[in-house]
Amino acid sequence: MRKQKITKKQKRIVSMCRALSVRIFAAIMVLGCLLGLLFFVRPDTSEVEKRKLTEFPKITLSSLWNGEFFSELSLWYSDTYPMRDTLIAADQKVESKFGITTSKMMVGNQKKTDDIPDKKASKKAKAEKKEKEVKQISAPDSRAMEAEIQNQIQDSLYVKDGAAYTVYYYNQAAADIYTSALSKAAEELKGKTDVYSILVPNNSGAMLTEQELEDLGGADQTQAIDYYYSLSEGCKTIDTINTLRKHNDEYLYFRSDHHWTQLAAYYVYENFCEEKGWKPNQLSDFEKMTFSPFLGTFYQKLQNADMAANPDSVEAYIPMGTNDMTYTDNDGTQVDWHVIEDVSTWNINSGYSCFIGGDKPLAVIENPQIDDGSSCVVVKESYGNCFVPFLVDHYQTVYVLDFRYTQNNVMDFVKEHQVQDLIMMNNISIIASEDVATTIAGLLQ
């Protein structure tokens, strides 16, 4: 066969295309550099990830000397890149259009999980804890902790039939910090305030089959929660995962969001009432509001078409005693709000925000129908938001502290307000972060 000869015209076209591609690439790089240099035109929140972004670090002599300032500056720079949400959304659309789309897939990173000790090791750990001196713990910077919480929940996901599930990884150091802090608090408050530990499983631990959990790897959430509870000396523990697995043919977790539904929280509330010796209110006793459609944090990350085609709905139960509350915002402003707020006119990502004003440093709910002086403090992250409304009809005052934002020392707050019950309610994956466990421990000192 004769070899086809390339004409001069064709060579010129190829040369022009190459030159054009180089210029386009250079222009993109220049644009990226210019955007990166826009220090003061940077976002402070992410609508896609539903979180506050890293704040510009404070400059101190010590942080400059030990290099901490430059580490935090790097985190701020990468976390607040101009047009961040737009670029993430564009990336998600490209992945959705050209990526692999199957009914089942893994998204994110697989991590190494620590081995969960058995009960014999638990007894030994208790003995060792008693011999150790309790050390003062300094909480990490809240900016880094926020990023860590997002990482704990969304970094390793199993997507199946339009629903995402978080894979759980156990962390021994975090477990030691968290349980030691709760045990110390229970000992210090003994005879005055009861301390309750409520650990909420991920949707994977409650909803997936044993075979699926085994195939996914990670750690056993039932075993982990049992181990946490066994080390939380002096605390009253409330069953969660065993109860939820018995009801896992019901709508207990959102498909497009990492939170549980208020129905799931209700089943745990029933267990709490049993421990307290109360008669729980029936769901049929409450007025219910429904917010639909709802597409939450998993959808914001994945832009999954199956989730969009079958969005969630949020069912919220209004307390009978009162729906009024007050919260203190991050800047110290007090705001009158509702325990269940009507968010029907808010955007499609806001359904879960109907509960107790979302994540605030401090919220206070006074029930005018109860005058016995009863009160509780709930220390929580967002998993506690839909549990709190069920407590309103049992206490005269419910105080809610979000450990990520509160400036209150929990122990001082409990003593000052002469609170009967301190309820520590957290998700098992979130407290598997050493930063989170350390932050909570710092509030309990």
Structure description:
With 445 residues, the chain is an alpha/beta fold. It has helices spanning 8-37, 61-66, 68-79, 84-98, 119-131, 142-154, 172-189, 203-207, 210-216, 221-231, 241-246, 262-276, 297-302, 305-309, 388-391, 410-416, 434-443, and strands spanning 45-46, 51-52, 104-108, 156-160, 163-166, 194-200, 236-237, 287-294, 312-318, 324-328, 334-338, 362-366, 375-380, 397-402, 421-427. Strands 7-6-15-13-14-12-10-11 form an eight-stranded mixed beta sheet, with helices on one face. Strands 3-4-5 form a three-stranded antiparallel beta sheet. The protein has a two-stranded antiparallel sheet with strand order 1-2. Helix 7 runs parallel beside helix 17 (434-443). The protein is globular and about 95 Å long. The N and C termini lie far apart (85 Å).
Largest sheet: 8 strands, mixed
Strand proportion, as a percent range, falls in 15-25%
How would you sum up the global shape?
A: globular
Number of helical segments? 17
Portion of residues within helices = 40-55%
Determine Rg (CA atoms, Å). Answer: 25 Å
- Mean pLDDT reading: 86
Strands, total number: 15
Could you give the order of strands across the largest sheet? 7-6-15-13-14-12-10-11
